What does this fold into?
Amino acid sequence: EIVLTQSPATLSLSPGERATLSCRASQSVSSYLAWYQQKPGQAPRLLIYDASYRATGIPARFSGSGSGTDFTLTISSLEPEDFAVYYCQQRSNWYTFGQGTKLEIK
Amino acid sequence: QVTLKESGPALVKPTQTLTLTCTFSGISLSTSGMRVSWIRQPPGKALEWLARIDWDDDKFYSTSLKTRLTISKDTSKNQVVLTMTNMDPVDTATYYCARLDSGWFDPWGQGTLVTVSS
It folds into this structure.
């Protein structure tokens, strides 16, 4: 099983700041990585797939990068609605998720 | 517009079998390439993939849970059913169904919380 490790567990930032979230895979997943956003009481929403492609309707302030074992989700300038939990997911070898990064308001 | 919605009991007793139904619209599981999955999330914890069913009735399960899971589809009703046997309190979670699009879960249903308690 491919283990995805996200860091940090919690990220405290202010609106307008830049957020950088990390996801590391226990073995190479090529570019088969996605990012999801989950707000309290809601289902996850697909943000980024294939490491760097934004899903339909996702604002341009969200971007993804990386390949192999190291990936990054960047939110260029935080909006109030961006404070949520973010999960990465790989599809290289079945499907596994990271443990999540909570992005909270500082 | 693709929508999915989960339904099933909110409370089950230990050792019982859980049956959940995912009813969807905007897609058809008779369409080549269509896939639907179940994922769960214990309260305050991460997501865990459970099972997948394809348009051609291929079925795939999480290695750790495969002996307890059965996934099936009713194409005429636009439904996918998941059964999980021998429920335990550690199985308390929100259970989601989602379309699997090229390996990515999109969109998701709203989820249904299942509590396992006597």
Q: What stands out?
A: Chain B touches chain A through 20 residues (CB under 8 Å). The radius of gyration of chain B is 13 Å.
